[in-house]
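Lecture 7 notes: from sequence to structure.
We start with the chain below.
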Amino acid sequence: MLCSLTIPRQKLKDVAALMSRVIERRNTIPVLAEVKVVANEDGSVSFEGTNLDTAPTITFPAGEIAVTGQAVFLLNFPLFNRLHRIPADHMTVTINGDGSVTYKAGQITITSKHMIPALDFPSTMVMDNAETDISAMTAADLGRLIRLAQHCISTEETRYYLNGLFFCRKPGEQSLRVVATDGHRLAAIDSSVVWRGREVIIPTPLVKLLAYLAAKDPEGDVMIKTHRERPHIQIHIGNVSVLAKLIDGNYPDYTRVLPAEYDDIDVTLTKAMLAPMAAALGETDRNRALEIDPVNGMLKANVYKELEVTCPIEATGSASIGFNLGYLCAQASVTPEFRLQSKSPNSPAHITSESEPDAAWVLMPMRV
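Predicted structure tokens for the same chain:
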């Protein structure tokens, strides 16, 4: 026996939940289906996975995992992910002298001769503090910024630089602003966090991973290191460290889209209004234009001039304006009540919410 780990079931679940968000189910490169395990001399144990773009590492201090010996080795994640579902208090992983691995959970014992050398695992770049800028915030701050902006991230791959969140400073200030847009809608979310790094674009897969980590420990501290020259970032949240590649591109000047005037049409919409409208239209028609008629105080949606769905509202304005119902529903899922204002039927709408005074959204109109 070279090394043995006795891992409590909850720790197994933590590792599996983290790695499953990075390691793909099907890999053409076998080593990318492995988890690198490092059993250190001080008794701490770390688990690392990667997809070559994002590499999270979760570390457990001495005493949380019983360790015999020290070693660096790889474990097959698909097998590891299945075994953590066995109803046992812990799982023991033993690295044998012949190169095999023995897994024991409850009454189940599995011996695997599938071992890839640890040296084959992709090496990750070390982020030297002398080459990075460090910003600090709470996990609740990070989770809020992501929650309020991520529904505006573009999924169109041709404009790859929009496939993520733009971390920048609020104009004229040092505080962090997070921006997202897909060309039809835009989110600009401000915070009190001091941003010391350069402007960066965090890709969508990393955004989803950070949202998971922030929700898991909202009271935890977050430290973000941004490299001054290379498109790399490192985030520390609790006992997890994530090293990842950023989107290497230039984000467009979003400030040109922010409307300066929006003093005509004014309406407050709620999730309680929009959800029944979407349900009445069905999933296939929820991206149709929803007409806001402030003159008659009505929400209207038409399907091929054969079906009309209406709902009374209170609104002010001199003309009707239309918006994508799906986008309005997505906004309502983030802010259940929001105020929509626009200068004219052809002008972008400015959206605010009393629950989030430091956030604003922009939505382009549709023809109705």
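Points to note: The helical segments are 9-19, 77-83, 139-149, 204-216, 271-281, 325-334. The domain at 3-120 is CATH 3.10.150.10 (DNA Polymerase III; Chain A, domain 2).
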